[in-house]
């Protein structure tokens, strides 16, 4: 009995402690050179809607300077951000084009995605203050906008991840409902799910059964 207890104790003592996540470690694992694409599921709440609107589609980065957000359901819409301009195209309608300077939140979106996917901490910190928490198995990174114009529209962006996988982006506007965008494995797990609570659970990194 005593040797067994001693062995159990030594195995317990040898169990490694979870390593803390830090910003550089996370950025190194999220970096993906263009071209890249990832599916998303997004839940948008509004006081004007009886229930949150569930969108699904794909983020694309065909080159280092371009970000595309394509909604495929419940409607079709393609937003392309490139060279300081935004183009929004919807089925059976002429595309709308305007300067990125008119929508600082979209400028911040392009900058944050570009910096995340290139692993560029310096570029990210030009636009946001960063606060990283958690372990390498489950971590969060909160982005607080530095620009006053952006801060009037956006309170914070929180990234939720597991290891090298960015699972969810939670956007908290200065006014209005929190918006959650599930990515990669979390988006695939959300197939056919409309319940806000279940989607939030997936966003925070838990399985559907928890």
List the defining traits of the structure above.
7 helices; 30% helix; 210 residues; outer membrane lipoprotein receptor (LolB), chain A
- Profile the largest sheet: 11 strands, antiparallel
The arrangement of helices and strands along the chain is: HHEEEEEEHHEEHEEEHH
N-to-C terminal Cα separation, in Å?
37 Å
| Unreliable stretches | 1-11
Q: Please name the fourth-level CATH homologous superfamily.
A: Lipoprotein localisation LolA/LolB/LppX
Strand order, largest beta sheet: 6-5-4-3-2-1-11-10-9-8-7
Shape: globular
- Mean pLDDT across every amino acid position: 82
What is the CA-based Rg, rounded? 20 Å
Write the layout of secondary structure elements.
Elements: H1 2-14, H2 23-30, E1 36-44, E2 53-61, E3 66-73, E4 77-82, E5 85-90, E6 96-99, H3 104-118, H4 121-127, E7 128-134, E8 139-145, H5 148-153, E9 154-162, E10 165-173, E11 179-183, H6 184-189, H7 196-203
Antiparallel strand pairs: 1-2, 1-11, 2-3, 3-4, 4-5, 5-6, 7-8, 8-9, 9-10, 10-11
Helix pairs in contact: 3-4
Word description of this protein:
- This protein is α+β, with helices and mostly antiparallel strands.
- It has one domain (20-203): Lipoprotein localisation LolA/LolB/LppX (outer membrane lipoprotein receptor (LolB), chain A, Clam).
- 30% of the residues lie in helices and 38% in strands.
- Helix 3 (104-118) runs antiparallel to helix 4 (121-127).
- The protein is globular and about 60 Å long.
- Residues 1-11 have low confidence and may be disordered.
């Amino acid at each position: 009995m005593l040797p067994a207890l001693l062995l159990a104790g030594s195995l317990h003592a040898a169990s490694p402690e979870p390593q803390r996540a830090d910003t550089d470690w996370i950025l190194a694992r999220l970096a993906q050179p263009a071209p890249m694409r990832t599916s998303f599921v997004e839940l948008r709440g509004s006081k004007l809607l009886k229930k949150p609107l569930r969108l699904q589609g794909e983020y694309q980065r065909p080159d280092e300077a371009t970000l595309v957000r394509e909604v495929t359901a419940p409607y079709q819409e393609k937003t392309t951000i490139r060279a300081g301009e935004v183009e929004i195209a919807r089925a059976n309608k002429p595309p709308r084009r305007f300067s990125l300077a008119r929508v600082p939140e979209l400028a911040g979106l392009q900058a944050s995605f570009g910096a995340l996917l290139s692993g560029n901490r310096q570029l990210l910190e030009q636009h946001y203050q960063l606060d990283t928490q958690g372990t390498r198995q489950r971590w969060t990174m909160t982005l607080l906008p530095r620009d006053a114009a952006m801060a009037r529209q956006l309170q914070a962006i929180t990234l939720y991840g597991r290891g090298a996988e960015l699972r969810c982006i939670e956007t908290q506007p200065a006014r209005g409902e929190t918006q959650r965008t599930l990515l990669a494995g979390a988006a695939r797990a959300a197939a056919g799910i409309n319940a806000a609570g279940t989607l939030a659970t997936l966003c925070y990194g838990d399985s559907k059964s928890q």
